[in-house]
Amino acid sequence: MTNSTPIADRVAVVTGAGAGLGAAIVRRLAADGARVVVSDIDIDAARGVADTIDGAIAVEADVTDENQIKALVEQTVDHFGALHIAVPNAGVGGVQPIAEMSYADWRRTTAVNLDGVFLTIRHTAPAIAAAGGGSIVTISSITATAGSPLIAPYAASKAAVRNLTETAATEFRDHGVRVNAVLPGFIDTELVTAARPDFEAALGLEPGGFDELMAAKQGRYGTPDEVAAAVAFFASDESSWCTGSSLVLDGGLAASLF
Ligand SMILES: NC(=O)c1ccc[n+]([C@@H]2O[C@H](COP(=O)([O-])OP(=O)(O)OC[C@H]3O[C@@H](n4cnc5c(N)ncnc54)[C@H](O)[C@@H]3O)[C@@H](O)[C@H]2O)c1
């Protein structure tokens, strides 16, 4: 009997998968038939997610540490025999105007959101190529597409991730590795929950004002499952001729000036 799920038996690694979008992405990839590695800097969170998925393993890795990323790839291949899908999802937020930002603040965000994606692509792509090919799906952001007041290093790193996705797509195409990006609008995860009071204070909004702003701009918050569905598309052969592309999911936020 054949297994008809879209990515049956492929092996997927998702970073930052102990919470939020990453947790929804590993659950969706597993539901689609993948064998998944739940990786996070917070190993307890990763274990909590892996424990809910048949056959999943949890691996602690800080995406800013190259040795830990190398070890993540090695442990994946040792345990499952190969790697076919990688989702460099780990990311951090923070709300601060440029005029008040230290260089250390800038580096803290760009280290995870950009350098971490570089390191993850750098070490997963050759392993995916060695397995006969597969897919990398980066998590950029709608903030990559325009100036984003109060979150400069976040938005700049997400714009860079989109460009890195395109470069990686060209460099790895002939090795059988597709690389695509999703650009979500605002999703109500811990990252946004933590930023909400700072946004409201900086923008002079009443408590609840940020939610109203998002409702006006996006219709509503997106859900982690909606992002996971887009990642699942790029991870599977349903998107077999897509590489270097970006998919916006934002309820129309970026489509309108008013
Ligand atoms: N929530 C949104 O509105 C939104 C929108 C667009 C893009 N994104 C992106 O989606 C990704 C996930 O965001 P989220 O909203 O789920 O955030 P989240 O804060 O809910 O979860 C992030 C996870 O990443 C882990 N993490 C943080 N630093 C890490 C590191 N150095 N190494 C490994 N893991 C680390 C955390 O422990 C946590 O489990 C991020 O890249 C984020 O920028 C989020």
In short:
The chain is α/β, with parallel strands linked by helices. It contains 8 helices and 7 strands; from the N terminus they run E-H-E-H-E-H-E-H-E-H-E-H-H-H-E.
The gyration radius over C-alpha positions equals 18 Å
CATH topology tier name of the largest domain: Rossmann fold
Integer average pLDDT: 97
What is the H-and-E element order?
EHEHEHEHEHEHHHE
Looking at CATH, the homologous superfamily of the largest domain is: NAD(P)-binding Rossmann-like Domain
Number of domains: 2
Strand content: 5-15%
Which hetero compounds are present in the coordinates?
Answer: nicotinamide-adenine-dinucleotide
First-last Cα distance:
53 Å
The biggest beta sheet is recorded as: 7 strands, parallel
Family: Belongs to the short-chain dehydrogenases/reductases (SDR) family.
Protein name: NAD(P)-dependent dehydrogenase (Short-subunit alcohol dehydrogenase family)
Organism: Williamsia serinedens
Keywords: Oxidoreductase
Notes on the protein architecture:
- The chain has 258 residues and is of the alpha/beta class.
- The chain folds into 2 domains: 11-185 and 222-240, NAD(P)-binding Rossmann-like Domain (Rossmann fold, 3-Layer(aba) Sandwich); 187-221, no CATH class.
- It has 8 helices and 7 strands; from the N terminus they run βαβαβαβαβαβαααβ.
- The chain has helices spanning 20-31, 43-50, 66-80, 103-130, 152-172, 190-203, 209-218, 224-235, and strands at residues 11-14, 35-40, 57-60, 85-87, 134-139, 177-184, 246-249.
- Strands 3-2-1-4-5-6-7 form a 7-stranded parallel sheet, sandwiched between helices.
- Strand 1 (11-14), helix 1 (20-31) and strand 2 (35-40) form a beta-alpha-beta unit.
- Helix 1 (20-31) crosses helix 8 and helix 4 (103-130) packs parallel to helix 5 (152-172).
- Nicotinamide-adenine-dinucleotide is lined by residues 15-16, 18-22, 40-42, 45, 62-64, 89-92, 112, 116, 139, 141, 184, 186-187, 189-192.
